[in-house]
């Protein structure tokens, strides 16, 4: 546990649910933890006891990527953890594969087709998932990503080839999407198990991220917007190359700063914790420090996003991590550029560089 983590309260300490099993963490809320084949090796998913139109059952919050291992764990959960009750709806916080990948499969009741229920999410997340699942753009791979990151200095042939070969990244992890959905909007109230959960949208990490806050029990299902150990990835991808996602993200954090400090935060990665205001202050300080580093580097000499990556990420990165590191470096550069603190120019080599 690092120094910042010591400032937070982890009520379940090192207790984790085994894959395929659940752990009760709040009134009517069960915690699932599924493995993922990436450096970020897990995702937290949630089961909320529910009742819709007189039918008792469960709301699933987030789904995991589409692979056989996670499907098998879900099948075990369906058979052993639902108390003989069906899933009544699937609520997805955002469009990234680890959250929406199995939404279609779970909505249709898994391998045994136990039920057929609706996906609930925001318009921004549903439509973004539809676009990316069409194969036209996946942000993290394919020809568009290779051109985008090449313009920002990732020009070595090996990286370019690896990026081009990741064209099926999204569709491999999200092979299908429900053809219909129910729209959630900011400040909507969703009644789950007789309790009111307020929709809190956030921006920067994804187009219209949907977190859920229950004031009665002081529980926040934070998705990826507020994480305890790592900072949320905020990236500029090829679909919006002049975007300012970091500015959007920092503004969005204000929506969580008004929540009680003893709110139990149930994040998509890491462990449940209390200390939401403390964590947001840490995240703001983290980005302030990174912005200062980027500003100092660009004042010394013009820098591309590829030049900034080693300043922000001190470890060796694989191509999966490199795409997010490049996107994050560019997010910090774009914020400073759009604020008028940096200027950018394109060199004779076609690479965009930023200078003070």
TrEMBL record:
Xref: InterPro entries: B_lactamase-like_C, Metallo-B-lactamas, RibonucZ/Hydroxyglut_hydro, Sec-metab_biosynth-thioest, WH-like_DNA-bd_sf
A Pfam short name: B_lactamase-like_C
Keywords: Hydrolase
Transmembrane feature ranges: none
Top-level lineage group: Bacteria
The keyword Hydrolase is assigned to this record: yes
Residues of the Metallo-beta-lactamase domain: 42-269
Record's keyword annotation contains Hydrolase: yes
MF annotations from Gene Ontology: hydrolase activity
Name of the protein in its database record: MBL fold metallo-hydrolase
């Amino acid at each position: 546990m690092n120094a910042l983590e010591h400032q937070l309260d982890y009520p379940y300490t090192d207790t984790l649910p085994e894959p395929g099993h659940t752990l009760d963490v709040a009134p009517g809320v069960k915690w699932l933890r599924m493995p993922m084949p990436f450096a970020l090796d897990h995702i937290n998913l949630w089961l909320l006891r529910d009742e819709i139109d007189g039918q008792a059952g469960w709301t699933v919050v987030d789904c995991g990527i589409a692979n056989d291992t996670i499907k098998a764990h879900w099948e075990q959960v369906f058979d052993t953890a639902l108390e003989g009750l069906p899933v009544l709806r699937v609520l997805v916080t955002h469009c990234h594969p680890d959250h929406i990948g199995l939404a279609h499969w779970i909505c249709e009741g898994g391998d045994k087709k136990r039920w057929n229920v609706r996906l609930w999410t925001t318009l921004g997340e549903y439509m973004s998932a539809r676009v990316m699942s069409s194969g036209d753009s996946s942000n993290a791979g394919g020809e568009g990503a290779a051109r985008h990151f090449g313009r920002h200095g990732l020009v070595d042939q090996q990286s370019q080839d690896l990026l081009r070969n990741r064209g099926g990244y999204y569709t491999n992890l999200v092979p299908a999407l429900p053809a219909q959905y129910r729209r959630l909007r900011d400040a909507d109230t969703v009644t789950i198990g007789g309790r009111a959960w307020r929709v809190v949208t956030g921006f920067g990490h994804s187009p219209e991220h949907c977190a859920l806050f229950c004031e009665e029990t002081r529980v926040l299902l934070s998705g990826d917007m507020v994480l305890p150990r790592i900072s949320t990835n905020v990236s500029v991808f090829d679909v919006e190359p002049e975007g300012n996602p970091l500015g959007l993200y920092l503004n969005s954090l204000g929506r969580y700063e008004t929540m009680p400090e003893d709110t139990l935060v149930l994040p998509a990665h890491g462990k449940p914790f209390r200390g939401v205001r403390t964590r947001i202050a840490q995240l703001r300080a983290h980005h302030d420090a990174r912005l200062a580093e980027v500003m100092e580097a660009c004042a010394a000499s013009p820098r591309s996003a590829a030049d900034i990556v080693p300043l922000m990420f001190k470890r060796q990165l694989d191509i999966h991590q490199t795409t997010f590191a490049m996107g994050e470096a560019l997010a910090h550069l774009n914020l400073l550029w759009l604020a008028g603190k940096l200027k950018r120019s394109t060199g004779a080599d076609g690479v965009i560089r930023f200078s003070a």
